[in-house]
Amino acid sequence: MVSDSDVSEKAPLCDQVPRELGEYRASIDNLDAALVHLLAERFRVTRKVGELKRQEALPPADEGREERQLLRLKEIATTAGLDPTVVDLIFPALMSEVRRRHQELRGDGPRPL
Ligand SMILES: C=C(O[C@@H]1C=C(C(=O)O)C=C[C@H]1O)C(=O)O
């Protein structure tokens, strides 16, 4: 069983963390907010792509484009000093969600029984 004292040791209150940790976390807060804004913008643009694909009767997925983009982003990551495997962890999930939404826009998502 976890007592109250155990919990407070494992999850210190914000005003009890060392100053340096608090500063790092403030940076993380700002960076995470910026990432969410960038993601929102990416999804706004990919929705336009999905609408265009529906109008033009183009397939929702373009595997070649995804592969080229992943290669490009891994090169950028390496230049930025970031382990490129991070790109492989995040972007395929994003692209998969975009494809799912494109399919949904076409009206061929899963049908109820
Ligand atoms: C956005 C597109 O649609 C899909 C989603 C992609 C993405 O999220 O980057 C890339 C290719 C497609 O599978 C596109 O074709 O450009």
TrEMBL record:
Which terms under GO biological process does the entry name? chorismate metabolic process; salicylic acid biosynthetic process
- Where does the source fall among the domains of life? Bacteria
- Which residue range or ranges hold the Chorismate mutase domain? 15-106
Q: Does the keyword Isomerase apply?
A: yes
**Alphabetized Pfam families for the sequence:** CM_2
The residues that cross the membrane are none
Q: A Gene Ontology MF term for this entry?
A: chorismate mutase activity
Q: Which UniProt keywords apply?
A: Isomerase
For this protein, what is the EC number?
5.4.99.5
**What InterPro entries does the database record attribute to this sequence?**
Chorismate_II_sf, Chorismate_mutase-related, CM_dom_sf, CM_II_prokaryot
Q: Does the keyword Chloroplast apply?
A: no
Name of the protein in question? chorismate mutase
